[in-house]
Amino acid sequence: MNLSFRQLQAFVHASQCGSFSAAADLMGVSQPALSQLIRQMEDELGLPLFHRTTRRISLTVAGREILGKAQRTVRQMEDLSRHAEDLHAGLQGTLTIAVIASVACSLFPLVLAQFDRLCPGVALVFQEEPASLLLERVRHGDVELGWGLYPTAHEELVFEPLGRDQMVAAIHADHPLALRESVTWRALRQHKVISASRQSGVRIYSDRAAQAAGVEIRPSYQTGSLSTAIALVRNGVGCAVLPALALDGMNLSDIVVRPMEKPGVWREIGLVQRRGWPLSPSASLFAGLIRQVSRPTGRTEVPVTQGAAVSASPSSDQADGFASPCR
Predict the structure, then answer these.
(1) Domain boundary pick from 35, 66, 88
(2) Do residues 112 and 58 both lie within one domain?
(3) Residues 259 and 316 in one domain
(4) Mean pLDDT of residues grouped by 10 in the chain (327 residues)?
(5) What is the C-alpha separation between 314 and 260, in angstroms, rounded?
(6) Where are the alpha helices (DSSP H) in the chain?
């Protein structure tokens, strides 16, 4: 048996209208075309569905038996069609993404709020991951899109850089390093350091910079939480190397922020997706919103805190000298 959706539509509309001509108008076809759809359905079923007179039509016993199921099928098909249209427009479905912590506490809420207003029917599931795990989540298809770093190139992934984020030292206002306008890696190693986990992009870039400076930074404490690191600094436990992007919404009372130098460290932040896998409409829309909120300058400024103001513009050798080996 090979019944078409159009045949079922014609049958349902004709039964509801009580007229082939009215049903034809409803479907936007000619009356002969609708009559042909009904005849084709009757031939396929081997059953007459309508009593026909010159003035009206009425359902046969078989037609009445079939009508309920035909109506449910038409409704389901129409719902499916609308759902498919919404999926194509990015208005329905589920979107899974991963973000690094510094993005999650800064730019991500702005994009999520806009996306939620534009696509209230999309269920967005996001995971906050360290840089290395974010790449693995995208590579294995656990998430469709990543917003973070690209410290290690992967053949299976595509990275679209959207901005650069400076690594800075967060220091208590009474700390000896607070008197400096910038902090070198050699100077930092003389003090207690609060570090992120080894899987974090902060730790990856910090270790590479220290290695480039010819020193080894041995953390006194490790934490996976940016807010915990700031709290430890505020209480004089140690200094922390952090991304400037993450400090925008932090409470920096009793804390000064200084750029790391010799070498200076700028992390490229952008979108990560699987190579050869086109994004779904909702993911494409979300990616577009990310591009809109990414700062036009492509750089994250160092927050101005207690003490001397710090310029956010590094010299070319500071910016490029470390960026190349990190790509």
Answers:
(1) 88
(2) no
(3) yes
(4) 89 92 91 94 93 87 92 85 64 85 90 91 91 92 94 91 93 95 94 88 89 92 89 95 86 92 91 93 92 64 38 30 27
(5) 10
(6) 5-17, 20-27, 31-45, 61-88, 101-104, 108-118, 131-139, 185-188, 201-212, 226-234, 281-293, 316-326
Domain termination site, one of 73, 88, 103? 88
Residues 57 and 184 in one domain: no
How many folded domains does the chain comprise? 2
Domain range for 39 is 5-88
CB 310 within 8 A of CB 257: yes
Do 140 and 84 belong to one domain?
no
CB 300 within 8 A of CB 164: yes
Which residues are registered as beta bridge partners of 57?
52
Tally of CB atoms within 10 A around 323: 17
